[in-house]
Structures are given as C-alpha cells and as structure tokens.
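Notebook entry, cofactor series.
This is the third protein in the set we're modelling with a bound small molecule. For this one the ligand is zinc ion. I'm keeping the input format identical across the series so the outputs can be compared line by line later. Sequence and SMILES below, as received.
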Amino acid sequence: MKNLIFLVFRGILFFMPVSNFFAQAIPHCGNSPEWEAELSDPVQQARRQVMEAAIAEAMQRDDAITSRSPIVIPVVVHVVWRDPEENIDDARIWSQIERLNLDFNAENEDIDQVPDEFKPFVGNPGIRFCLAAEDPAGNPTNGIVRVQTTERGIAMKRDNLFYSDRGGSNAWDPTRYLNIWTGDNFTPNGISVTGYAYSPWTETPERSGIVISLDFFGINDSRLGMGRLAVHEVGHYLGLRHIWGDNSPPTCNDDDGISDTPNQFFYNFNCPSYPQHSCDGTSNMFMNYMDYVYDRCMMMFTKEQTQLMNAVLALYRPGLLNTTIPCVQKPERVFADAFTVYPNPARRAIYLNFAEQVAEPGEILLYNINGRVVFREFFILRNGMEVMLHDLIPGMYFLRIGESMRKLIVHP
Ligand SMILES: [Zn+2]
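Returned structure with ligand:
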C-alpha cells in the first residue's frame, strides 16, 4: 500500500509543479522551498549554513540550554483587518496565546496520545508567551495592534503587510518582541498559504516574526481549528525545519537536521492512522508539530527539536531571553454559578448557556466520579455552544468551567 501511495504522489508531482501541488492540495505553511524564493538566494543559503553550523556546535557542546527560568517571550499581535468581521476579538487572541503556552510546555491535553514508540522522545521547550504590556516607546499596551487596511489578501502581501505606510503594520523591535501578524489571505486564483515564518537566516528587522492567516488564527472554525498553525510557525521562527526535510521533489535522502525525528519521505496530511511508514520502513512521526496534519492530530516536539529552539534563542534571539517587557495579565473570569447544561441527562452532545453573554476562551473539563479528567479542551465560550461527548462510558460526571462545577449524567 505504501508503494502505491508513493506512486500516486510521484504521478501527481510528475504532472504538475510541486508548488502547485502544495498550494492546491494542502494549503498549509509557506515555509517551503517552492514559496521561499529567498532560499534560492546564494547569500541567504550561505547565511543559513553558517547559522545552522553554529547551532549544531552549540547543541554538541550542550550549552544550548541556557539558565532560563522561565523563558517568557513578549508577543505583539498585529491584527490587520479590512472587513469588520476580520477585526477579531481579544478572546480569540488570548486563545492563541493559550495554545502556544500549552504546546511549548508539553502541557497540551492530548500529549498522552503520542504513540508509545515516540513517548521517550517527547521534548518540553519550556517557553512561555505573553501579550506585551509595554510598547517599544515604553507606553502601556494590551499587546494588540489593530490596523484597518484597504488591501485584500494583506496577510500574503509581504511587501505591504510589514509596513504601516502600505496598509500593513510595522514590526515592533524584533530583538525584544515576537511579532505575530494576522490578516486575510484571500487570493483570486485560490492559491494561498495558511501562514509562514521568518527564521534567523531569512528575516530582516522589518520582517521578523510569524504570519497566520486569519482563518487559522487562535481557536477557529477551520479544519485545523486549535491554533496550532502558530505553534508550527513559531517552530520555524526558532529554527526548526519541516520534519520530512524540505527537498523538492521529496526524497528519502534529505533530513530535517534533527536526529530524534525518523527519516520521512514527504509530509502527512489530514489525520493519518498510526502507523505510517516511509523511508526504509521507519515509522513517520506525523504527530509532530512540524508535519502538516490537522491540529487535533499533532501533539509533540522532540527533545532535540527543543534543544535546537533553545540554541536559536540563545544564539540569535538573545534579546527575548533577557527582556524586561512586562506581560499583560490574563483577565481571569470567575464563572461562579454562571452556566447551565442541557440536556441533562445527555447522550452524545451537551449545550451550555451562560448567565451573561461571553465570548472568550475557556477550558472545559470533565471529571469522572473518581476525579480523573476524561475530557479537557479549550473553546470560545458562547451561549448555546455544543460540546460533543465522544466515547464516554455512561455514568455520572462533573463538568467544570473556571470555578464552577455541574453534575452531568451520560446515558447510553
Ligand atoms: Zn512549515
């Protein structure tokens, strides 16, 4: 079967340029050689080689793990919007920060789903993110810049997105902040990428950070859904390559430069069943954040990826390690006595109502009668929201949101 799949891949690749294949079939990340014209620039290639050699050396010396405790990277989010609905609310932005914090601290709710063969390789980058509470001029801020633009598809217009005088938004000092831009990625011909990032060897001070297409930013309704495109892009920003290596056309002879990710022919997409094999029969680590699967099917960095990201921080983004920029404190909401569940008893789904109108990220936890968490997920909390109860054994449970708890009976 695997050979058949490769034949199909090779067949498609044979008949159309890889860039089109990427763009039409899997509009995912723009950090591919097809899209990154810069990487064919010999000057930039040379820069990359020098930097990657220095990173490898730092990792060998094992002094890559700095005395960070903890690392907290101040973030500014540039929302560059055209239509009012593109001017996303703070809740969605907070949900993106939450996702970065969970995944970059191996605190994600689905980390138990890593297959046993890969569990020993799970790494914890130990990096936290917060919205910056102080702008470059020293003024108080909520870490969110909102800019209205007349440009359609601004997120994909690299000549405009990074310049306030061209309908975009100027970067904040990239030595002190991680810049995250979001905007729409509409393109008339349907070819687009969902996001991209600048690594230390591709960036300029004007273009340092990551770009996430609005549809995939934070908790969202797309097929990705959980805000993990930003996790992937921050991985690039901190020096990681795609897990399959980036040669085009794909081969088994290239590599991501990381020894604890198995050699992999090409990317995986959608939500593959485990295991998937490619090069030399090795099992693909498709649940790695640097592959192309759906958000709900990716859940880990490896130890060496973690080391590399920390080495990049120490060598090329030291300002982020030594920053004195304060963080915006997340507005804590107490849902005391604030929600109702129906139907109760329930079967496959429940709906939630809140005492007041809310639209902000919140964690929904379900405990069984032994107090064990059987369900944990972040949502944008809204009146009438649906929560699917997959694979729950009939019985009594406790549903918790914030400080508030409700008893829930699940029927067969
Ligand atoms: Zn990528």
